[in-house]
Amino acid sequence: MKEDFHVDLSIRLYEKGNTGIACVSSKNKKHTGCVLTYRLKQYIKNSLFVGNISEEKAKLYAICIYYLVEDYLEDINTLIICNDEDFTYVKEYLIYLINLNKLNFEIINITEFQKRLGRRVKSLADNYAKIYRKRGLQRNKWHIGKNLNLVELNYEMIKEKWEELNKI
Questions:
Q1: Angle, to 10 degrees, between the axis of helix 155-166 and the axis of helix 53-69?
Q2: Exposed/middle/buried for 96, CB within 10 Å: 0-12, 13-18, 19+?
Q3: Closest Cα partner for 91 from 15, 13, 165?
Q4: How many of the other CB atoms lie within 10 Å of CB of 151?
Q5: CB-CB contact of 34 with 10 (8 Å)
Q6: pLDDT tens digit string along 74-113?
């Protein structure tokens, strides 16, 4: 059964500290998340960022989102992404990574979602992103409270997709 999925960041990619990213389904609250440590963000910035910083951060965000949703691609009706990074670039990179020609779902930002609803709402993934940021790096706390479904991202995984995106 297809449903909406929300994606959100706990701390923006350029801010100090670890960044939690969560993807949550709207109906049954299935969720996955990841944590980018401050050290990893700095290393990526120093080794991979080349051009426009805004575009590069959007590329990193799109790569993280790709890894979070890759297991749920058949279940997604609409992917709702928060406006933490430049949405135009994030959407463009996601379309390339996921290859939406094969899949049938829409990618929108939270502002468009709010317009459709006719009211201002927060992302469902907002609180989950904070949980992943706080508990994602501590394996012994993954099963306390809400069980975490952590996608453990590393530099090599990000670099592989980064090089793929540099081809466009």
A1: 120
A2: middle
A3: 165
A4: 20
A5: no
A6: 889 999 999 989 999 999 999 999 885 566 789 999 999 9
